[in-house]
Amino acid sequence: MNAGDGDARELSVGQAAQWALYRLAPESSTSNVVTAVLAEPVLDTDVLRAALVAVQARHDLLRSRFAETGAGPVRLVDPVGPGTIEVRDVGDVDDEALRALIHAVGEQPLRLEQDGPLRAVLLRRGTDCALVLVIHHIATDGLSQYLIWRDLGDAYRAGRGGDTVDWPTRPSYDEFVAREQAMLAGPRRAELAEHWARTCAGATAATLPTDRPRSATRSYRGASVARMLPDDVARQVRATAATLAVTPFTVLLGVFEALLHRCTGQGEFTIGCPVSLRRGRALREVVGMLVNPVVLRSSFTPGTTFATAIAAAGRQLSEGVARAAYPFPLVQAARRDRDPLVRVTITLLTRQHGDTLSDTSNGFVGHRVRQLVVPYDEGQFDLAVTVHQLPDLSLRTEFNYDRDLLDRATVERLFDQYLALLGAACADPAATVADARLAGDIDERMLLELGMS
């Protein structure tokens, strides 16, 4: 493949980093973003294919392929999206077997050079079906998933009525790439680079104790533990946030950093927090990779209270978000020792109003549709925590982890410890982090023996 096979476009810095990761491990599925819905009755395949073509026509990243040229990586935009949907009749399998089939679809690597960043698979049962979209992170982010499903539902609705969907605009990822290039070519670059150099000088990434030694090379094999936060905990988090005049996510972040301090024994460490880069109306409708991890640096002493940790987390977050335009790959590349700045991440995803994935009154007219929860982003980091804020303000939390390093039982215990610290922080924000009970009696004794409690 060469650049002459399509309309060549430049990549963003984040995309270039994803491309480099892909080239290192092309058979890995760790960057696959997987979403799925269950629809009853079965979706009309012809209408669905036409709807997918329409969505690809609107969002050019979804009809792009990627290639390495002498001048570096590029994306090649095809004039028309193929609208390819693989249809599999799976018989009357039960829901558990269907979930296993969806997981298997997500585990298949995407071939960015040949097929591009999108795979659509329809798993048909007798009276219903699961529509699975697998999109490489090089072409999407959390909000993009909402946009794609919304537009797919709109196009399907129009097709069922014999019409074609007429969107007012054709947003392009090129707008973001141009903005990023302008920033990197201007005086703002030096200002941001200096800030991140100060923030990261002498920093050490939060490094959890592992069940197995860290290998020199990564396999990017991941798994996840997902739970709903108990309703009483979610209410306590909101109440504590109001008392401390911060956001609920700031409470979750500050307590998570406290957990890392307790589990690692590190008094100072860095983690990553992916934040949105959608600044201004022009980028609101763009599908693409529009997130950037910002580095948060924490510091704990024996006297640090939960309130102090939460306030510090709020300052870290506000300072990082204000300077999020500077690409994280450039921050990491400036490290002389090349040690990773981020081994652990935490982020918040807020469900959008009218989200087709969760609101059965929108999209795919004539069908009852509900979202199927499919964890993704597994194995990119030692631990990646994603907090999903749902429309009813409930919180679903995923702990995605590198299973070469951690066992599921270890991550389950870590989740329990996080809940314990959340309870302690909300009960008494003035309590010191070091004195809070971390786990049950048996786990506590084990941690004391390791010097970790």
UniProtKB/TrEMBL annotation:
SUPFAM superfamilies: CoA-dependent acyltransferases. Pfam families: Condensation. Signal peptide: none annotated. Residues 11-448 form the Condensation domain. It comes from the Bacteria. Gene3D superfamilies: Chloramphenicol acetyltransferase-like domain, Nonribosomal peptide synthetase, condensation domain. PANTHER family: FATTY ACID SYNTHASE, NONRIBOSOMAL PEPTIDE SYNTHETASE. This is Condensation domain-containing protein. It comes from Micromonospora reichwaldensis.
